[in-house]
Amino acid sequence: MGPWRCLLLLPLLAPALRAQQQQFMEYVERRLSLLEERISQWHDQSSRYSTELRDFKNQVLGMLEAAEKEREAMRAEAESAAVRVDRLEREVDYLETQNPAPPCVEVDETLMDKQVATAKQRKNEKYTKLTDCSDTIASVRAMKILKRFGSTSGLWTKDAAGSSEKIYVFDGTANDTVYVFPRMREFTLFSATRKAARIKLPYPWVGTGHLVYDGHLYYIRQQGPSFQVIKFNLANKTVVDSSVFPAEEQIPVFGLSPFTYIEVSADEEGLWAIYATKEDEKNICLAKLDPGSLDIEQMWDTPCPRENAEGAFVVCGALHVVYNTRLPSRARVQCVFDVSGTLAPEDASLVYFPKRYGSHSSLKYSPRERQIYAWDDGYQIIYRMEMKKKLEV
After folding, report:
1. Which backbone phi and psi does 248 adopt, to 5 degrees?
2. Where is the signal peptide (predicted)?
3. Beta pairing partners, 384
4. Closest Cα partner for 157 from 378, 374, 318?
5. 241 C-beta neighbours (distance < 10 Å), count
6. Measured distance CA(84)–CA(281) in Å, rounded
7. Which residue positions in the chain have pLDDT lower than 50?
8. How many Å apart are CA 265 and CA 210, to the nearest integer?
């Protein structure tokens, strides 16, 4: 097609091109208008969201301030309640001291006749004291909770006669491994047993009535219906002696601690064995034990009942039995039996232990420290005792 023909077609195509250009411009304008409208909507929504977020933030800050005020108020109330509880405990201690509960000894004619007959039979078998110790417990002077270690029931103690600072731990009521910590510091600081030496015993123990005395471990072994007292040398790890305990048909010595059949205790006079038999199943028996030969030197039937008893220990030749309730309450020394006869049961102080966790599975008196190592529901506790002369109580 020649150039002159293109020039002839231009006037014909120009209107069509202008129409297309106009349509394209209108399309672009509509798209821009829609875009501007959406931008405007987004701006409005963003402003609204910003306002709502600011309002929500202010609301949350107000709620946090109110919660903080309530928390401070609750803390103040809790501190005030703790102060009132401590004051109430002190008042209860005072009232219980002024108005002691009567000893839970069941008195009937048969028991009275039996006690009279026993007294007549043994009136010439008076116990000859080895020391001039004439002290008795007046009160619990202080209490220190060391830690929580092991099972709910167990025993921990020091050597009751020697000067060693080692801590001996019997975890549970039936085992054959004793943990030994070099000092109180290691036992207190470390929760695991990696810092403790282990002593594997030749026979497993039963109960929590064991004792460390003058470098030896005296522990209880059960063989069928009978029980043995094993004397174990801690230095060379050998059994020095053993003896079948000379009591028939033994039963748990404490009503609230059914796992203990014999409680070996130490005081200023030496070793003692606390036990019970079916012959007199209501009351606790006491025996003087020779630490060298394990022979029984003398035996007593005490008036202290087994029912609600959770533990016992001997101080200056006097048996102190600790009582509680089935639902653990405040433990208390409510029965005292003095083998020398210098302290009448009615003249003994009624000693209360501070209420803490549950009930004691073991109470070990240290005559050289005048304190008790207790195991209370897995907590290891030290009770420091306030002492008085027997004639002053």
Report:
1. -95, 150
2. 1-19
3. 142, 371
4. 374
5. 15
6. 43
7. 97-109, 111-120, 122-124, 392-393
8. 8
